Amino acid sequence: MGLGEKLRSAMESLRKATAFDKETIKEAVKEIQRALISADVEVQLVLDLTKKIESSAFKELPKGLTRREHVLKITYDLLVELIGGTMQKAPEKPKRILLVGLYGQGKTTSVSKLAKYYSKRGLKTGIICADSYRPAAFEQLKQLAEKINISFYGNPKEKNASKIVEQGLKELKGFDLLIVDSAGRDAFNEELVSEIKAIEKVFKAEEKWLVLGADMGQLAKKQATAFHNAVGVNGVIITRMDGSAKGGGALSACNIAKSPVYFIGTGEKPDDIEEFDAQRFLSRVMGYGDLQGLLEKAKELSEEHELSPEEIMQGEFNLETFYQQLKATKKMGSIGKIAEMLGMKMQLPKEMLETTEEKLEGFKVMMDSMTKQEKKNPDLLNHKRIERVAKGSGKTENQVRELLKQFKQMQKVFKKFKGLDEEKLEKMQKNGKMDIGKVLQGFGPKKKQKFKIR
Ligand code: GDP
Ligand code: MG
Questions:
Q1: Which of 82, 7, 9 is nearest to 43 (CA)?
Q2: Mean pLDDT calculated for residue range 128-154
Q3: CB 3.0-4.6 Å disulfide test: which of 62, 118, 288, 314 passes with 123?
Q4: For the CA of 103, the nearest atom of ligand 1
Q5: Which ligand is nearest the CA of 237, by number?
Q6: How far, in Å, are 322, 334, 346, 385 from residue 406 at the CA level?
């Protein structure tokens, strides 16, 4: 089971919890600890993280968030921070990249992946094989280069890596980007360092990236530090993120070593590379497809303002309006009262007029779990989003669907009502198509003044 699945099941217990007390949090925190430790994250980091979750879980709730959402959000934020939420992005237009690293970490594969990645983004890219140590290296890179249709230079007869690079620079003159593949060793040693330094003397790369397999786990920190100190490595590529559960450990280790992870390798093929983005990575591996929605919502809450009755009457009638109205009505009697405020009591289906206070409370809780966009346009609430809202509010998906159904009924009534503005009514009357008196009667006794709002 990978890190993502473990975290997902740990978070699942938070999402499903009915009682939301210290015990529940403690249990969930234990599961998160287990997940992270088995992903080879340093124990101290894990303890720090979970201590933070426990201490902020019962702090004052940010405006509009449920306790459950609050805990999910801080946990998620802390996880993002752990694996490198503040890391910078890979450069968009690098000129020279040198890849270094130990044997079998994925350097040669990554050279071809990067070449494809950057040439797709418009850079005329060439690659140079400076691995003269392993006889098969030349052939491996040459074949990869042909496969992705990228210019390649190498010389299997030359043993001096820096001479190959010197020649390569002449052969591939005028290219936007050159990428050099270097030889590895079994372990970090002086021979490797002096070889890299010699290549650097002629190549003068502004980007020196270390390639590390995800299976390195927290050992990545030692590697990154050693390579950084010896040859000034300034970026990292973590490969085999598809195959190792230790990816979380490798990522957090690089974060601690202040080595930005620019790319991750997610397979053996030239396209199996992606820019590393901690947030995107986590929400994907955790399978929380609509985590973005929750985050958006948390951001919006500070900007939200209460709508005035005029705004409600003038604007679209949407879940947001409905919600704002519920919010404004501190003592929520029944939906009938709200309908009355909106001036459409007479038109509402009976079942809606009888909506209990308890049910209304439930509506409010569910709407608290929606983003502003979703409340504005409830059609956005597809299956995935409904699932998220249900989880966030501790309701069932059916309950969310019921709210949407009731809302839709109410929206229909509202549309009818809004459609009959004064201008339209006048026109209809003029054409003899409508008896305005009758229409108004249909809307109940107070309707006449209500039209003035528009
Ligand atoms: P080098 O010795 O550092 O040049 O490593 P190579 O590029 O030759 O890769 C070593 C092995 O790891 C090869 O079998 C690659 O196919 C494999 N490999 C490299 N990157 C990835 C990756 O992101 N995912 C997977 N699954 N395999 C990879
Ligand atoms: Mg290689």
A1: 82
A2: 95
A3: 118
A4: 2
A5: 1
A6: 11, 13, 16, 18
Average pLDDT along the chain: 81
For 263, the enclosing helix (H) or strand (E) is strand 261-265
In degrees, rounded to 5, the angle at the alpha carbon of residue 293 between the alpha carbons of residues 291 and 298 is: 100
CATH, residue 134:
3.40.50.300
Q: Which two tokens mark 128?
A: 């140079």
124 and 204 both lie in a single domain: yes
**pTM higher than 0.70 for the full model?**
no
Digit-coded pLDDT (tens) for 250-296: 999 999 989 999 999 999 999 999 999 898 888 777 766 545 555 56
Burial class from Cβ neighbours inside 10 Å (0-12, 13-18, 19+) for residue 325 reads buried
- 245 in the same domain as 115: yes
Residue 61 belongs to domain spanning = 1-86+434-454
Q: What is the spatial distance between Cα 269 and Cα 375, in angstroms, rounded to a whole number?
A: 42
Distance CA 145, CA 400 (A): 53
Q: To test the ligand 1 pocket, which listed residue (100, 102, 103, 109) has its Cβ within 8 A of the most ligand atoms? A: 109
pLDDT digits (tens, 9 = 90+) for 307-364: 554 455 555 677 776 666 555 443 334 455 545 544 544 455 666 656 666 777 788 8
Cα(269)–Cα(62) distance, rounded to whole angstroms? Answer: 45
The domain that contains 64 carries what CATH number?
1.20.120.140
